[in-house]
Amino acid sequence: MLHLLTLHYTATEQEADPFIRDHVAYLERHHEDGTFLVSGQTIPTSIGGVIIAHGVDRPAIERIVAQDPFVLNNVAEYTITTIAPGRVHPGLSPILTMDR
Question: Has this prediction a pTM greater than 0.85?
Answer without folding.
Answer: yes
